[in-house]
């Protein structure tokens, strides 16, 4: 036997109060296994089983009847659980009786409302009486798309009230997961509903029998009187009197209910108007919402609402909608003008420019807002550059203040760049009196660079965004704005190129007017010149100007602006360098001429006079500006700079000071040998040693440090490894790094190659020796692999082996087990030959014959 079910328990009812015939939802536990299991339902003591609709074991829907009790419990009775209990109660409201003509606030259920005056001869539509769940079992909605159902059942419908109803469609759509037993229960429920409907009709007839009999008797009496009086319409006959009575009753009824029906018609009209306002309140409220959102700056909300209104009412023919939509278009046109004004305002950030362009694109603004913004920015930057020059000439120091711009100056931003890319800035920390000590031309060039570096990058990025279409949103992409933008950009490439050329030309001409006025045509001096009465610049200030202009050029080059557009700046840099060199040579010549006057002919303990100490400036000059060895330090790494300076020191040691000594001897100056020895051995040897050690440390440490991770990459174990098949990649990578150093040194000075490479090889050999001596034990294959790699490395760099590196390789090989098998020795020789053959081209640089002089 199956275990008895628990009695029903009602735990909730919604609503908790109401008048008779209020529809309520009852929730609880164990409310039955199906419609057939529900045998009793009472609310406030009234039987509501007739109106009950069982939904599930925890939900029942019914209507409250006219119970006698004002408040009572909800009792559910089932076959399986018996009489239930309730933890909640329902309060029955008793409405006051009113006359047929009294006004009252009555809620009309418009869903099932029918105007019986206009449809007296029509029956109520069965759609209003259809049950939400005709099968009486739990609904399990399927996940099959509607389009697939329409393709599977063409011309059919899953709506059971449709003429083309398909039961298969309905079951798939609403009961895809129902079991066969549940479907059998659903069939039983359908049969019971049909039986209940027939029984209900019969019960309705039985309950109204007395009314039917009274109507039958009245009609029979009227019929008898008509037969006795005749059916003719004679004055005073029964027919005439009956017609008069019915007409008077109809007139009286129309008189009584005329006001009531008029109020109802007015209420219906008001209700329909409110429904229209409620349904289309989005459109009616849109003008005010647009105004509010514009004031708050929520332009995205305005655009989204406008797109929605345009899709819904853009082509409407309803007069009231057209009138409201016209007001919306007026507000949107005002917004377009406002956004365009904000877009063309200067200064503005790149982010704001892109945002306003996207807004105008989404609002379908006429013209091309992006190009208008680019054109306005171009004119503004040109004017800024002119204002910078005019205000410095007319007012003086610190005249230009870019709208309170607090960004660091061009020199401040370039201090790190020059220190990283050129070995340090030539400008020291500014004192508090900088503005009063620095020439105005220098301040002008720096401020002008601030303008260019601060504004031109954003100007270029705006153009790039315009070209690739990234200015527009998804809405713009769908509407074809992106393709339109790219097409416009292709057509305006030459115009933009002319804009960049105009900006760079103006920059160059303004700097020429301040620093190189002689290079400008006579007709442009009045426009770009005006610095005739300013202080002439010395070589130190010109060097600083070169740094500023070079930093400006680098900032523009980093934007990937074509080199042909920046060529004028490169030409300016070249002329500035030449001018700076000329000025430096002129000043140096004057200084050298004055050295003779400072000689006191007093010899110190080292055998030199104080004049030699003052020659330090000459040494610095020759290191970087020697006529034959001068190399621009542009774009070199720190290691390359060390190498260049090291080479310059060697050249200075071997040529310059010897030439100076020869000139001294030629002019009869004695003691040149001692001066040469002090200069070379005391100063330059020490400097040479420090530079050489710094370079070796920077190049050798990474190569040696990569050996250990490379050896043990992939959890390699010397005690458990495969038979060697060749040299592993870490060793090849180390050789490639050594080759890279060789190429770097050889490019600068072939004389340094043996010195540098021997030290690099010594460091690598020492590290290999240490790594081999740290291994506790080797397998046979591990020993063969290690010997192969050590021999391959030693043979590859044999040209640059010295005593220390030879000793390190020997110790490394001694740490390995000896090879006793002839097969192992043969395999070792074959693998070594294979390695040398595969890397023959790479290892060619290590051969002495490959060292050829480099043309400079």
From TrEMBL:
Cellular compartments per GO CC: exocyst
Coiled coil: none
Alphabetized UniProt keyword annotations: Exocytosis, Protein transport, Transport
InterPro entries: EXOC2/Sec5, EXOC2/Sec5_N_dom, Ig-like_fold, Ig_E-set, IPT_dom
Gene3D superfamilies cross-referenced by the UniProt entry: Immunoglobulins (2.60.40.10)
Any Pfam family hit: Sec5
Span of domain Exocyst complex component EXOC2/Sec5 N-terminal: 133-623, 637-846
Lineage top rank: taxon: Eukaryota
Entry-linked SUPFAM superfamilies: E set domains
BP-aspect Gene Ontology terms: exocytosis; Golgi to plasma membrane transport; nervous system development; protein transport
Residue ranges annotated for the IPT/TIG domain, each copy included: 8-91
Known partners and oligomeric status: The exocyst complex is composed of EXOC1, EXOC2, EXOC3, EXOC4, EXOC5, EXOC6, EXOC7 and EXOC8. Interacts with EXOC3L1. Interacts with GNEFR/DELGEF; this interaction occurs only in the presence of magnesium or manganese and is stimulated by dCTP or GTP. Interacts with RALA and RALB. Interacts with ARL13B; regulates ARL13B localization to the cilium membrane. Component of the exocyst complex.
Protein family (similarity comment): Belongs to the SEC5 family.
Record function comment: Component of the exocyst complex involved in the docking of exocytic vesicles with fusion sites on the plasma membrane.
Name of the molecule in the record: Exocyst complex component 2
